[in-house]
Design a protein that fits this description.
Elements: H1 2-15, H2 18-27, H3 47-59, H4 85-93, E1 96-98, E2 109-111, H5 125-132, H6 142-145, H7 154-161, H8 166-176, E3 193-194, E4 202-203, H9 224-239, H10 243-271, H11 273-277
Antiparallel strand pairs: 1-2, 3-4
Helix pairs in contact: 3-9, 8-9
Length: 293
């Protein structure tokens, strides 16, 4: 009996250091589910929202985060923010990118072109780490790289509802999840900020958005909630710029398979119709009964 008590006490002591961390992990709420124009099999991007999100990125996010995989020309591609080629060219020219080596081997900066990608805010990771004590992640595919576990039975329903917006829902909640003070019993390390949706709740990035920080000219609300939704939608497009074409092709294939299945069914009925009505003709006969040419 004494031995059992000793083992139980040892188990309690070993589990005690893990209890606060586990408690904080379990307290992380699931991000709210938002309504997105690009959700579902017929979803499409809201062009106005993509342009607003691009504005938020340029005025807020690009100070720290890069879009290394996004070319300027995609801003004018079908299914994107719907900028004209002239507008995309003008946007590219506002950036300075590394040019080709000259005859002396020197590399000089030049205005960006449509074929160039968005230049990073830092020349290398060491420079970013020296300034922020960390390397801010590239945002090109962040909407697909981040997400959260839906858990049972929600993921079962996602199969039928085709819910694929975990990433943008998480980003939207993260940008709105900052709190001035952590709850009682939660300790945040120095130079970190409390965010109720970030795993572990301690995030190094300070709150990037405030009301009226980015000026909208289309009448959209200039609030943190609207900013968060717009930049998340824009990052969904950068992560999957061909989303509309993919859904359109998928629907065409789906319709084709339905028509093909119907044709195969009626072809089978036609081919085997006589056999079904006269099964006795399938009985084997001696060779002498078969007609001769």
């Amino acid at each position: 009996m004494a031995r059992a008590r000793a083992v139980l006490a040892l188990a309690v002591l070993l589990a005690a250091p893990c209890a606060p961390a586990r408690a904080q992990e379990h307290e992380t709420p699931a991000p709210p589910t938002n309504r997105w124009s690009f959700a579902g099999p017929f979803g499409k991007f809201d062009r106005g929202q993509l342009q607003r999100g691009f504005k938020v990125y340029r005025e807020v996010c690009q100070v720290c985060h890069a879009l290394k995989l996004v070319a300027f020309r995609t801003l004018a591609d079908p299914g994107g923010p719907a900028f004209t080629t002239a507008q995309a060219t003008a946007i590219a020219a506002e950036y300075q990118v590394k040019g080709e080596p000259d005859e002396q081997g020197d590399v000089k900066d030049r205005p960006g072109r449509l074929a160039d990608t968005f230049p990073p805010p830092f020349p290398n990771d060491q420079a970013a780490r020296a300034r922020y004590n960390a390397v801010p992640p590239d945002l090109s595919v962040i909407a697909k790289a981040r997400g959260y576990e839906r858990g049972f039975p929600r993921w079962v329903g996602d199969i039928f509802t085709q819910y694929q917006e975990q990433g943008v829902d998480y980003l939207t909640a993260l940008l709105q999840g900052y709190k001035d003070k952590p709850p009682a019993g939660v300790t945040i390390p120095p130079a970190s900020f409390y965010n109720e949706y970030f795993p572990g709740h301690a995030i190094a990035m300070p709150p990037p958005l405030t009301d009226n920080r980015v000026e909208y000219t289309d009448g959209a609300p200039m609030t943190v909630e609207q900013y968060a939704k717009d930049i998340s939608a824009f990052l969904m497009w950068t992560a999957e710029p061909h989303l509309e074409a993919r859904k359109r092709s998928g629907m065409q294939v789906f319709i084709f398979l339905i028509v093909l299945s119907a044709l195969l069914y009626f072809t089978k009925k036609k081919v085997w119709h006589a056999v079904k009505l006269h099964p006795e003709e399938l009985k084997p006969r001696p060779p002498s009964e078969y007609p001769r040419a």
